[in-house]
Amino acid sequence: MSAVTDTLPPCPECSSVYTYEMGALLVCPECDHEWEPGAGTDADVSDGPREIRDAVGNVLADGDTVTVVKDLKVKGSATAIKVGTKVRGIRLVDGVGDHDIDCKVDGFGPMQLKSSVVKKV
């Protein structure tokens, strides 16, 4: 029985690993949820354009100008990026971790920022 539970995905409702096949559906015996294999996967979520929002909820777009809303320490630098620093011409990317803005900060050079630390101007 462990061979079956190792190959089938866990239940998307309750995360139970005891799913089984019933015809063309997968069934969870713990919560009675039934679903089609492959339905509701990450591929379905990534079909639409990703919406990136700033610290106050404004939708960001390529080329926007933003201001930094909190002091940011920069690795390898003795100074920090101060609150209110304007960053012009941002580019939205899938960066490392939560870093989703690619930009050039005056005095610091090119870097990636998190959208949660900027506000659209």
UniProtKB/TrEMBL annotation:
Segments forming domain Protein YjdM N-terminal: 7-36
SUPFAM superfamilies, sorted: Prokaryotic SH3-related domain (SSF82057), Zinc beta-ribbon (SSF57783)
InterPro entries in the record: YjdM, YjdM_C, YjdM_N
Coiled coil: none
Protein YjdM C-terminal domain location: 52-121
Family: Belongs to the YjdM family.
NCBIfam families attached to this UniProt entry: phnA (TIGR00686)
PANTHER family per record: PROTEIN YJDM (PTHR30305:SF3), PROTEIN YJDM-RELATED (PTHR30305)
Name of the molecule in the record: Alkylphosphonate utilization operon protein PhnA
